[in-house]
Amino acid sequence: MQLKIKEIFNQDYVKLEGQKIQIKAWVRSNRDSKKIGFLVLNDGSSLTNLQAVYRVDKIDNYEEIAAARMWAAVVIEGVIKLTPTAKQPLELEVLNAQILKQSDEDFLLSNNDLNLETLRLNAHLRPRTNLFHAIMKVRATLAFAVHEFMNQNEYSWLAAPLFTGNDAEGAGETFSIQKFDNEEFFGKQTHLSVTGQLQAEAYAQAFGNVYTFGPTFRAEKSHTNRHLAEFWMIEPEMAFVDLKGMQDIVEDLVKHVIKAVLEKNQQELEFLAQRNDENLIKKLQKVVESKFERIEYKDAVKILADAVKNGHQFENNEIFFGMDLGSEHERYMCETYHQGPVFLQNYPKDIKAFYMKLNDDQQTVASTDLLIPGVGELVGGSQREDSYEKLLKRCQELKMPIESLQWYLDLRRFGYYMSSGFGIGFERLVMYVTGVNNIKDTIPFPRSHGQIEF
Amino acid sequence: MQLKIKEIFNQDYVKLEGQKIQIKAWVRSNRDSKKIGFLVLNDGSSLTNLQAVYRVDKIDNYEEIAAARMWAAVVIEGVIKLTPTAKQPLELEVLNAQILKQSDEDFLLSNNDLNLETLRLNAHLRPRTNLFHAIMKVRATLAFAVHEFMNQNEYSWLAAPLFTGNDAEGAGETFSIQKFDNEEFFGKQTHLSVTGQLQAEAYAQAFGNVYTFGPTFRAEKSHTNRHLAEFWMIEPEMAFVDLKGMQDIVEDLVKHVIKAVLEKNQQELEFLAQRNDENLIKKLQKVVESKFERIEYKDAVKILADAVKNGHQFENNEIFFGMDLGSEHERYMCETYHQGPVFLQNYPKDIKAFYMKLNDDQQTVASTDLLIPGVGELVGGSQREDSYEKLLKRCQELKMPIESLQWYLDLRRFGYYMSSGFGIGFERLVMYVTGVNNIKDTIPFPRSHGQIEF
Q1: Which residues does UniProt assign to the signal peptide (chains A, B)?
Q2: Which end of chain B has less Cβ packing within 10 Å, N or C?
């Protein structure tokens, strides 16, 4: 019976006592005296290792197995033996062992205390460390949980285009495509998309509920621990849903994906808690159980001004209606004022994107950011401007190229009653759920200014 | 009770008789005499429309509702009435109706007989047609079914990087990124990736089973109905799996996703069968039930040569060992010789990529293509070269830049016993399952040479 390590530990393993099994795995460590040796094995299915005990009087090739180095690939046949008094509840008594492929002696990451920067420089090998095993397994759980939530709620996944001829999507610097054979491949200057929202709106007006889950690109030169040039976004868009209804969906989605990790990745979370943040699991459980607070932007400004009055020091203490809140202000709102997730809502129009619905006060737009302790902004969303005339006016005010947005404006001419949507930076979500501090450690092969290895 | 149309028809709707419900939807058509009118409504949840009957003696705003144009957004309250003798099993007797947003008169796609080219020029509106509703819903089912299969089988989803400094991934022309502020943003010339396979191998050596599902880019100027500049690929990679084991996984995956569509999208398939290919459903059922054939490349060459000898005319009748099979030859193999999916395997090394495992005959590599009736190649895969020396030699023979591939070569130094993987062009899969002839009609906003609208 060939088993994966996860299959062994995920069942009532008492029943496995005395069973003969086969396992293919990599050696994590190997120590031997002259008569008995211990292989610690991992096959990638689990953070848990399986210990295999080999004895000189049981196998013919004791010397060969004793020479298996870290990350050698091996195939082991053995009998499961319960070890109730040991740290591990069971081990494998080796009957037969073969080295499938020896490993070179200079494996770079054999030292467990390597710093994150060194691991980043070895992004092809870092998934073999416990830390990156844990992070990337949680990441995979989050990704599937997003698709699962969307599928359960009848959202169709949408592939938004990545090449765009439109430089006016309203979010930062874009990458451009070089000419090909001395001509523009697409017939005009082409950028890499920074959002799939505009196209998602077109599909929401036909399907009701859609979502994108794909890469986006931003040519930001910042070298902070919160920016990547290439990252993944989830952008749901719902027709017939207003700002408040959209916030409910954000809350349900965030809770669903965190619950999935709490259920599936207990072991990884325990490891990450130990390594990154001892309160990690409690923090996640609290999010799942809490009701997300909703606070008007204008009230947040008062709260922050009061905090300054009462002696709280921000780096930027100049608080006024119309300001773009800094990360420090956002974190104050969700970490100090309210200790948990907070939606701020109805921001001044001048600090938000052109497509957001103008409120009756003519000053603010129907927008919301979800602020999360330790991260700040995790989700940004809005109800979209549904009036052709108002949207056109706003585009003109901002001197945007109307022609390339005409199709987007035209959506408003054909029954565009209401649409709301939001964007989640997927790597921000991974940061939050894993407690990792640097966004470059949340994606397998990070791309940022000056960094393109692998 | 607010319901979606899909919820109405997906339940035992006899129970709904006499129930009062509310629905928000768009008008697909509206006709009235002076006393009675009929709204055909769709809310995007289903291909099925709901007919709502409004009467001048039941509602105050009969004239207003009678003026609702195609794609006007409306909210209707009414009572479900079963209509066993009509084509539709039920209708809505309107108690209250409001136009939420009128639609302009010049809706472009009001004619049902528009050709596909016109629809492509209106890619923002085409999801409102029955045809694109059906195609894109099937597409969404396929995408989720891929994630579902992978999750059930313990594969971790991997975000392969899209920016690459490596121009040697072995597949066609690439797009390059323009300099930014007069310098290379990433410090060296940067391309858009054509595959995530190399990075997937790194993760397979840590996790066992991984898969990518993301966009890839190819600067192909061809204007055929089978090429896009931007398309989506699924690339699973499995450690400890050989060519034959990999073919089993391909077969299971293809059957799983087709089964999902047969179960979830019966209505869409019936529509597509009527429109595209009357044998569509039978064809899909046959794939699910059949055992995929496996034929050696060298035997295929003999079969094709025999066909020519027996009078079959290919455009290219020159059949020899070492040739790259054309689409016509591939289709002969899966449509005429064997009427169903066929794996060809063990191709000559010179027509395949550098990373494929050299077979003992020194002539062929452990590669396979899955050929599907009506499409040709749907899947390409291989067992990877696991020997550092052989892989290095092959890179040198092909004059590839070793330096930027050193990390990939190095994987072989640390327990790289075995790895196999494959790639599925997602849009090819959608073509096959929907019976659509042009790949531009399988993706919401197609990008190809000269085409970048929306």
Answers
A1: none
A2: N
